[in-house]
Amino acid sequence: MPTVSIDEHTSGGIWSGPYLAVTVANLTIVAIAAFDGLAVIAALPSIAEDLGDVALLPWVATAYLGASSVAVIVAGPVIDAIGIRRTFRVTGLWFLVTSAAVAIAPNLGLLLVARVAQGLGGGLVIAVALASVGLAYPHRLRPDAFAANSAVWGVMGFGGPALAAGLLALEGWRLIFIVQLPLTALALALGWNALPSTRDRPTRIETDVVGVVLLTVVTVASLVGLAQIGVRAWLALAGGLVTLVAVVLYWIHAGRKAQPVLERQHIVRLPLRWVHLTAGLVLAAGLAADNYLPLYVQVTRGRSAGFAAFSVVFLTVGWTTASIVFARVLRAWPEASVIMLGAGLLLPSLAFSGLAIGFDAPLAIVFVGFFAVGLSIGFVSTAGLTLIQRVSADTEMGRVNAAHQFLRTLAITYGIALGGAVLLLVVDRRIGDVEVVRNVLAGEDDVGLGPATRDAVQAGLVWVVAVAAVLGVGCVAAAMALRRNEAGVDRSR
Description:
52% of the residues are buried. Helix content is 79%, strand content 0%. The longest helix is centred in the C-terminal third of the chain and has 42 residues, at 451-492. Helix 2 (59-82) runs parallel beside helix 4 and helix 8 runs antiparallel to helix 9 (233-256). It contains 19 helices and no strands. The chain has helices at 17-51, 59-82, 84-104, 108-136, 142-171, 174-178, 180-191, 209-227, 233-256, 265-268, 272-290, 293-299, 305-310, 313-329, 335-358, 363-391, 397-431, 435-441, 451-492. It has 3 domains: 1-208, MFS general substrate transporter like domains (Growth Hormone, Chain: A); 209-254; 262-493, Up-down Bundle (Growth Hormone, Chain: A).
């Protein structure tokens, strides 16, 4: 059995002596990751002005996200092979060096290369932060640890854009990456020896190149297919077919390989399958709608781009609130019941939001609806993470968490892509021109929006919420299945 430095019997909370260094290290990493995503988007105009080559500019953000998704896939085998402490050290140093490379990149080409490398490190350090909750804390403290992580995301959702704007005004876009260096170094110093040593001796890391390639094909092909719904039918169909073939091939491959990068049992084993499904559906449903709320606020309601961007905060606040409350609720309810609570809250929250949008209710009412959607996400996702780590052995914690994180990431990406496809399809059917909406999404203000466009965007978001509600029905069904499964386990015990 692996040796863990902090055991179940140690007293105190996550801010007490034995856990303090781990807590601060993890939260610092989470804060850096949250800030990086927010700040890069804000910095794109400044990067374009400094380095030029506007055509490649969108890849500054997407290159990082793509590399991070790949890193999440391979994180599990690495953690289980060499241990959480060694993985943290290596990936933390990697992220530190690549962040410095991004900060000093002399042109956009080298910046993109550095962002890919940084994304690999970023995906790994986040996977380590997630897995360490199950390995460094006893079960009784994991809800508090997840709540603290969510609180940091919420704080960065409020303060991250303002901080990024201040840094841009002070010294330009490079300072955004420079300030990450001392914070990353601090996290490294704190977690260097504080994280548990889950492997006395490293074992050989099983490389599954074929598996990684197939899962990458699944990710790319499915995104292309979803993005082309209602735009290019043949490309949407081709993306769907390639995705299906790649999924089948990977399933066959995973059954034949001794240690695939993503094990089948970590996807379908009870209760994991229901946790993956509930978390994926609630995230896809909620973010499919929330991602396009700023477009509605700006185009239909006529508010500024800055105010519109701020509108996504309300779902984040609800998510954070539920995660904090969860730590208290779990003392009275099992995880499956909390997941059922969150899933049950999703449908009425979406219905409330859709009606508020459709009937031009005050924006405050719309924001209340999305806050409630955030509550639903917070309960389902946080309880799901806690349940997964409770039923997983230490020796498989890395792989199980990586599988869950990969599936969550796919679900979020699918939800956003599906929401965008539905919205643009509705706009195209109403006014025959989606380029005006694409221009707003790209950050252009002066696009000559008329009443027809404003009405089309409103109708489009209502339809996105309706599609999200369909996903919500699936989330409720999966939560009910999970609750029945957990009840059966309890009775057998």
